[in-house]
Each structure stands twice: as structure tokens, then as C-alpha cells.
Task: inverse folding
């Protein structure tokens, strides 16, 4: 049932009216250097922002043991964040509509070499249609959008006529444990809206992601006695060559996946970080390589991990240098399966109507090749999780930004979606 | 003129008698963690050791400007040591013999991962015939040997009948600027003995060494949008592939070098250290690779550097990713030519006799593929520089050690060499 046209227009106007405040809020978020493990003040900011709006607040630690028991958790190592998960709870006067999770993550990836940015990464700069800064796109603009979509209703004297959980999580860029923790804590709703910067599209299907670290050790010698290949860095690159073969093999299975078969190369192995050796004139004795590989939906994580380990082991046995000290593979982050958002849900239909009201055209669905927290709600809550947000640029790169006109539109669409999905009721005097 | 047999036997006995003290002195040296830039206390120890023995002491800073004007200096960067050079000067009562430089370096290469050592790297452990520890072989045992060879004469009431400079330098493992600084300071003698661990052989010819850092930059993107090869780490490895071709080309010229043509692969490119990227799920935007390549004697350093730069530039132009942001090559350490020790010098003959007295066999000459400070004395002082020292193991690697019976023998040979080369005189009452 479509929204009343008057209410629709009121919501559109309300989002527009508070958009300057939404921009300022987003800028305040970007100023927090909330890289992995450093999200404490950012989460306190989110806690206060929701508390001041009257939400019932819960803040909880990640439960390492509970996570470890769940097959969807990441590998917990020394780099794992200890920042809490923050949830603002809205309970209606009367539970008439459908409940909803509004989710966003506040952790950001490292900014990289600062001199490759046109402006300081944690100083949000607005230039024309863009706000630039690390996390502006991925996904602080989305976190703010969740809050301001509800604010728009409130400014009209309205609130959702169903329970809404405003979830602010961490660890989205490394394990997905923040989102999983909300599931383990017992939060459940009939749909979820995750406001990742999806470029005004709905994510239909999403790749799974596995992280691992390859470590090669070797007995070094003075460079004067170096033999061909007896070098941990060179040896690591030989292993990488074999992993590229595995990547090829996995891509050849794309035909089995409806939403991936038309993508040229859905499975990507990223050699994200490397460190090795101590001295230019010493043959390096060690090399560590941080890798990220994706798996097609339906691929079991444990099976994929076993395949990685077996391939490396088989390659190692045939390599004169590596066979002496076989490299180790440590799974150290995401161990996450992909998902497909089943077409035809009511939630998708409601978002589609909201989107059309704002954009005047159909909501397109796309396949994503990046990890998304939505997987938790699709795979483990078995609910429609709608990954939907603004146009961004430079995500995980330099001069990251969010497109502000796009942000206003998707915030409006989110507010319309909430109003129709949850229904609205008057705020009690 | 061979030494008097009585004197020879006395010297052999004297070195033997003080060898326990020599071992202890070497152990004390190994306990100093004198990696690059951290040689201050080590040099103070050497200063005090020579001063207490009555040498006239000089200690001087490295003169950056003077070094920069000299073609044999290394590239001075932030990692360059500021530790002083220490020289102990012996002047005879009567200048009758031939003057001599006794040289050693106290800097050591990094120990690497400590857990790959059987014993703590800076705790000198004696096990059977070996003393183990970083720098025990390369070349603290040699530094101590220089001092104890003179001590042996002194214990007989004798001293060299010529000026002897006991030089303790730094930067041998990175630029060779310490040795060059002694030259720039004006120290000159008729021969030099450098007690590197040459396994009881004399170094006839020595490779030149150039250090450089390759840096690749690129515009990173989220791994979901990675294209083939648009990855700074992968791109760096493609450049390394091209540098391996250059290495091959340079090795093909080995026929021109009398002392290198029978070595299978005299020119070695070492990929010594690598660092790149910030995050497993971000396509890396940067990669730095520390390289060391050798050049055959007679190859001009500037010509070789130009060839490296040109080869990388040409390769870059043909690479879709690299051509956008060409990598940089920074020369950041050794810029040192190789040398050939001319056969037939008196100094070599004297060392040959000393060696035969101790070992009962001819002194063998070998070609070295590692940088040696001796190049300063051969190339710029135009004197015979004898690179001669003990048997070692694990140099630039793990469980580095010096063979103690070998050390005693080469110390004895050094003492005999000094006695014959400089002549001896009675110490004044």
C-alpha cells in the first residue's frame, strides 16, 4: 500500500529541511579517525546522538567466545576491535507495523599515504556536490542517513509504528563481527536496511570474503651466496602466482551462480599488504602477505579455506626452497559467505516504491563484489536485508567522497521506506 | 725478508697466551647492538680500549659535505649513521718500517626475526669451536683481532717500527662512508689490512655494490573494482622482473673481468626488503622495494645507475598501470665500485709468508661478491689493501658465528704480518 501523497510530500520536505544538519552531523563523524580498533570515541558520539533523540540505548562488548562458536564470525586476532556495538531502540506506542533494523558501520579502512590525498583525510571538505574524507562514503554518510531519516518523521510529529533498531557497528571492514554480534545479542526484525554507498541501487547478490596471511620463512644468507630463488620475498611471489591460478579456477565456476555469471571476473584475489626482509644486502628470511580472496555465494567457507591450504601445500612440495620450510597460511579476518537477496519480498517492493517516488525510475538491482554486513541478516536472520545508499567515490582509496545530492535522495527514499514499512503513528505528547 | 724464527715462535706463543682475553673482548663487542645508527656505545668502547693501550686517539664525525663531493661516497639519507669514526694511532720511536692501516667495522646488519636464532643474537655464546652472535663473524672478531695482534707484540716488549693506524669505522654495511671518511680525513699508509671474515683467504677482486629503492605508487580502488595489474605490489613485482633481465645482461659481461669470468653468477640483484599496502581489502596504492645490485669491477657507478633508471623507465612506458604514475628509483646506500688487488705487491708477499708460517700452506686468493671497505684503500689510496680474516658462518643470516681456532690462527698471521711489514722495535722504558 503506497504512502499517502501528502505524507510523502511532507517527508520529502522534512528531509530537505534538515539536510544541512545532516551534512554537519556527517562531517562530525568523518573527523573521528575510526580505523580498526580506534572506534571508541566514534561510537560514544553515536551513542550520545541517539540517546539525545530519546532512543532507548544499549551498548555491548563483542563476545569473543560467542562469536567463536558461530560459523559466520571472523578470525579474532590482536588487531580485532574492542569497541562496543551501539544500538538505539525505538518502540512504538502501539506495535502495528513491521519491525526494522537500520544498520551502519563506523569503522573505516586506513587512509594510506596522506600525501596522496588532495585534502587531509579526516577533515571533511565540501566542494560542490561532494563531501570528501575517509569514511564519508563508506559509510558515515549512511550512518547519518539512518538517523536523519527518522528525524524527518519526528519533525512531522510522527514515529514508526513498529520497533526499529538503529544499529551502529564496527569490524565491517575486517571480520563482520559487529553485525554478527547484534544477531548473537538477539536483535531480530522483519527487515533490515543497510545504508552502504550502493550508488542508488539495491544489492541483489554479494560475494563472500576470506582473509588470510601468507608467511614465508627461509634461512637467509649473505647476498654474495644467494642462490636462485632462495629469497623469502621471491618465494612469496611464487606462492602468489599459484594463488592466482586458484583465483582463475574459482572464476571458472561463475556459471553456477545466477547473479555472477555475467560478471567478467567475480572472484578477486587482492594482495593487499606485504612486508618482508630487513636489509638491502641480506637475502630476506621472511615475508608476510595479507591476502583477501572472494568466494561465490553457496561456496562453503571451510571448503574454500581447505582448498587454499591444499593448493599452497601442493605447490610448496614442488618448490626447492619452500619445501624446506613450508609457508604458513593464517586465516585472520573475514570468513564470510556470500548471499543472494531473494527477489519478490515485500520489503523490496516497499523500497522500490520509495525509490521511484524520489528518483522517478525503477530501483535497479546489482551484484556486489565487496563484503557487506547485510549477509548477517540474510543468512542468519533469514530476513530481507536491503543494501541501499548513496553515490560515492574513492572508497578504500584516496579523495573518498559522498555525493550530497545523491545522499539527500537516498535519505528521502529511506524515510519513505520506513514510513511505509513500519507505518507511522503520532508521537505521544 | 722473513721474520727471525725465534721472534716468530714468540709471537705465536704470545697470541695464544692472550687468546682467552681476545675472546672475552670479542664477546663484549657482540653485546653492543651496533646496528646502523646505533654504534655510539660500541665506538666509545673501542675508543676506551685503544686509549687504555696507550694509542694516540682521534675521534671524528662523518663530514657529510666532504663525503658528498667524493665519487665513492654513498647516498646520505635519514638512516645514515651519525656515530663517529675512531682511530688509534701508534707512532714508533724511530720510523724505520712500512706504515700500515689496520681496519675493521663495528656496524652489524639487523638480526631479523629473533625466533629464527637458536640463541639470543646479541648474547655471545661459545659452543665448541664457535662463538655465536650477530657481528661475531662480520666483523667484531676481526676488529678485536687487529688490537690483539698488536697486544701480542707488546707482551714481548715490542711495537711496530712504523706508524700504524687502528681504524674502527661504521657504515660498512650500508654506504662505506666510514672507511671513506678515514681517507678524506687524510689517513695514509703503505698498506692496509682489513680483517673481514674471508675464511683464511686473501681477497683478490671484489664486486661493486649499488643500493636503490624502487617505489611504485598508484591510485587504489576498492578491491571490488580491481582490474588486472592495477595494484602497486603486483606492479612492483613486474618491475623486479625487468630488473632480473638487467641482472642477466650484466652477468653476460662477466667474460671481460678476469677474476669473475669463472663465477657462475657474479652479479646478483637482491630484493632485500619490501613493504606495501595498508589493508587486505584495499588495492595497494604503494610499494617500496629495497634492492641491492652488484657491478663488475671497472663498471662506472654512474653509468650503471643510468642503466637502471633507463631500463625501469622503458619498461614503465609499456605498462598500462605504471605508465600513469611512473615508479621512482632512489639511490639510497652504496654507490661503490669494485676493485682488483694487483698481484705481486710486497704486502701480499709478506702476508703470504705470515700465513704459511701459521697454516703450513699457501695463501689462497679469492673473488668476493660482497662489498668490502678495502675498496677505499685500493681505489683511492692506491695501496695494497689485504682483506684477510677468519672462518665465519651465518653472516647476514641467523646463528652467525666465528670459528675460534681459525680466529686464533689469522690473528697470529696478522701479528706476524705486522712484525715483518712494519718491523719491530723495543718499547721505550
Result:
Amino acid at each position: 500500500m503506497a504512502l499517502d501523497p501528502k505524507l510523502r510530500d511532507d517527508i520529502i520536505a522534512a528531509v530537505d529541511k534538515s539536510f544541512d544538519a545532516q551534512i554537519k552531523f556527517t562531517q562530525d563523524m568523518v573527523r573521528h579517525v575510526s580505523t580498526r580498533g580506534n572506534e571508541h570515541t566514534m561510537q560514544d558520539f553515536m551513542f550520545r546522538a541517539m540517546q539525545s533523540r530519546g532512543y532507548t540505548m544499549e551498548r555491548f562488548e563483542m563476545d569473543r567466545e560467542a562469536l567463536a562458536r558461530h560459523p559466520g564470525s571472523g578470525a579474532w586476532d590482536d588487531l580485532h576491535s574492542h569497541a562496543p556495538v551501539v544500538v538505539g531502540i525505538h518502540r512504538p506506542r502501539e506495535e502495528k507495523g513491521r519491525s526494522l533494523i537500520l544498520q551502519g558501520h563506523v569503522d573505516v579502512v586506513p587512509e594510506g599515504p596522506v600525501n596522496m590525498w588532495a585534502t587531509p583525510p579526516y577533515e571533511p571538505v565540501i566542494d560542490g556536490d561532494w563531501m570528501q574524507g575517509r569514511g564519508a562514503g563508506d559509510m558515515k554518510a549512511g550512518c547519518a542517513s539512518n538517523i536523519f531519516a527518522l528525524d524527518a518523521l519526528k519533525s512531522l510529529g510522527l514515529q514508526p509504528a513498529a520497533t526499529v533498531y538503529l544499529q551502529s557497528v564496527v569490524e565491517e571492514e575486517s571480520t563482520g563481527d559487529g553485525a554478527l554480534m547484534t544477531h548473537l545479542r538477539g536483535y531480530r526484525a522483519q527487515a533490515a536496511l543497510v545504508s552502504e554507498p550502493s550508488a542508488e541501487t539495491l544489492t541483489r547478490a554479494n560475494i563472500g570474503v576470506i582473509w588470510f596471511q601468507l608467511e614465508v620463512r627461509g634461512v637467509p644468507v649473505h647476498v654474495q651466496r644467494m642462490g636462485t630463488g632462495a629469497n623469502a620475498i621471491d618465494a612469496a611471489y611464487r606462492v602468489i602466482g599459484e594463488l592466482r591460478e586458484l583465483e582463475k579456477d574459482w572464476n571458472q565456476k561463475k556459471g553456477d551462480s545466477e547473479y555472477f555469471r555475467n560478471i567478467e571476473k567475480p572472484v578477486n584475489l587482492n594482495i593487499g599488504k606485504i612486508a618482508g626482509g630487513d636489509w638491502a644486502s641480506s637475502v630476506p628470511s621472511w615475508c608476510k602477505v595479507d591476502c583477501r580472496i572472494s568466494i561465490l555465494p553457496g561456496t562453503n567457507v571451510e571448503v574454500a579455506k581447505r582448498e587454499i591450504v591444499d593448493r599452497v601445500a601442493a605447490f610448496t612440495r614442488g618448490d626447492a626452497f619452500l619445501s624446506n620450510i613450508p609457508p604458513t597460511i593464517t586465516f585472520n579476518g573475514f570468513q564470510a559467505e556470500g548471499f543472494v537477496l531473494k527477489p519478490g519480498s515485500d520489503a523490496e517492493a516497499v523500497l522500490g516504491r520509495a525509490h521511484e517516488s524520489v528518483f522517478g525510475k525503477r530501483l535497479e538491482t546489482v551484484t556486489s563484489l565487496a563484503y557487506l554486513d547485510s549477509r548477517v541478516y540474510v543468512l542468519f536472520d533469514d530476513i530481507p536485508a536491503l543494501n541501499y545508499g548513496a553515490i560515492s567515490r574513492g572508497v578504500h582509496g584516496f579523495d573518498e567522497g559522498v555525493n550530497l545530492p545523491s545522499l539527500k535522495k537516498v535519505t528521502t527514499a529511506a524515510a519513505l521506506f520506513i514510513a511505509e514499512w513500519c507505518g507511522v503513528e503520532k508521537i505521544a505528547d
